[in-house]
Design a protein that fits this description.
With 340 residues, this protein is α+β, with helices and mostly antiparallel strands. It has nine helices and 13 strands. The N and C termini lie far apart (113 Å).
Amino acid sequence: MNESPGRSPRRQLNPRPQATDVVARMLAVVPFLIDNSPISVSEAASTFGITENDMRNIVRTLFVTGIPGDSGKGLHGDLFDFDFDTFEDDDIIEMTNHVGPAETPRFSGREAAALIAGLQYMSDVVRDEERPSLEGLISKIRRGATGSPENISVPRAPIPDRAEPVAGAISHDLQLEFDYLNAEGSLETRSVCPIRLDVVGNTWYLRAYCHLRQSMRTFRTDRMRNVVVSSEHRDHPVDPASLPDTLFDTPATDSGIVVTVELSESAVSLLSDYNALIGESTRGTSRAELTVAHLGNLRRLVALAPGAIRVVSPDFAVAEIAQWADRGAAWHKIDPLTRA
């Protein structure tokens, strides 16, 4: 019967489920039945929000579903199987055979040994409170391997002598003072709250809150000189677990200083060699944020445009540039005839 002109087709009140819906439902039902069998048809149907007849149809479909098996013919043991009498007489679904992977893939003995060796290598790096978790993980790997882990000898990562005072300060929540060899090759005196020691390859690094930089920094222990453990307790609370996994995550590394400057439009082009974030110009002046390797680079940048660049932050950079400018001004006031 044709529809009347101008009328929309009559909607089907009970649309049949799409094939994709049926497949998705069966994929969800199978693991549920594996974990919950035996279970009544009504309870299983209620769990998935379908009718009992729909659930019975799914089970009947599973009776003839499986894998080809070695013979390629899908014989009895290659199919899902249920207790047919219990299903037909009592409306109970009891799975007696299921197909597919029966066990979770497991590490071989050698794979487990390699993982255990790596964890043992790191055992000297983790904090004391993390050691039980590390030992528990090693135990689980041993138990879960298909064979006994082979003996793979991997040397641990011993803390070098120069880092022993650092480790002691961390353990007792004490501050550290040391001279640090910076990128310019000169020594800078630092006072820090040590947080954690990390190792990358054969190089040990200290993560600490630096009072000079007023931020978290990462120091190579082989560049630290004259290390002294202070009697002052750590005054900057940082949870070691809150530190980023990436060792040199900005601004955690001491290889750069983030500086904010104000500069005139004529000096903006000088920032082309820097990865600078330059704001909009207001009355001929812009504010920019850039990273310099050390304060020597910042001094050279300011010297390129005298009076056109003003350092705004951080405070230690402002103080350094001010002192440098004062020394230069004092030097120029010396009588030229007596200047060395």
